[in-house]
Give the backbone structure.
Amino acid sequence: MPTTGTYDRDVTELSPAPVVDVVAGVLQDARGRILLARRTKGRELAGLWEFPGGKREPGESAEAALARELLEELGIRVTVGADVIAVPQQYPHKRLRLDVRRITAWRGTPRGHEGQALAWVPPHMLASYAMPPADRPVVAALVQPARYLVTPSPGDAKSWLSGLQSSLDAGTRRVQLRAPTVASNDFRPLARLAVERCRVAGVEVLLNADVDLARELGVGVHLRDEQLHALAERPLPDGLPVAASCHDADSLVRAEQLGCDFAVLGPVAATASHPGAAAIGWHAFAALREHVSLPIYAIGGMTPGDIAVARSHGGQGIAAIRALWAQPQL
């Protein structure tokens, strides 16, 4: 879906610098641990941990660049596998695109040939390591769901719960309970039942907009765009997820400042749920995500088939209602 000319011009003004292409690899050992390297003293962002790799040379493919960098840095010969994510990121004095690939095999023992410390880290511990902004979305891509289900507004409660259960059975692992046509007090008992089902399935659940009910039920909250600018601090304690719907760079930056765990950005394509909203397209999505290191889901006309496209533009994956709502089994 092409973006509008006006939107593209605004984004270009925000991000005028040329892009530096960087490649990095995800090496995972037999115990499931992932290799991180620490940036050495005297380098930009010294002391931070990152996925090993380096800059692409002119005319060099991403695969060739990654193989060369890992040979130079770690002394190993690698087989480069599938894409993980490509993160566009803006720094104070440069822009880069971090292209991350799985390493499916390697020969030799990884060692810090440039004096860098190395660490083999369990996936659930990756987020505890201080990293450059571009590497943080990589961690999310490795350990967090690529699909974020937004529930349709309930009609018949029994059918709605059945549809939710079908979605959970189909593999949904992150859910936003949203009921825009139902009064808060009326939705409360249904939300409680839905939360119980999500907990049994081990699924992360957030409530749309209702901070008080989220606190009462002990679950996360998904903030509307206008709530971001009204709140002075993160509305829930650490351990309960906070997400936000965003439509521009200011909202994304505010979501990160507020301590949100992830964001949803769009509409990327035309969507039946918001027929009057102009689609921003993938070019603008990638340009906007440069300004924060949050995991960001693309929303608006998305299907599971768009997950790979979202990842290639720095997205965590896709958020959707219809495309992720499994039909109840009657």
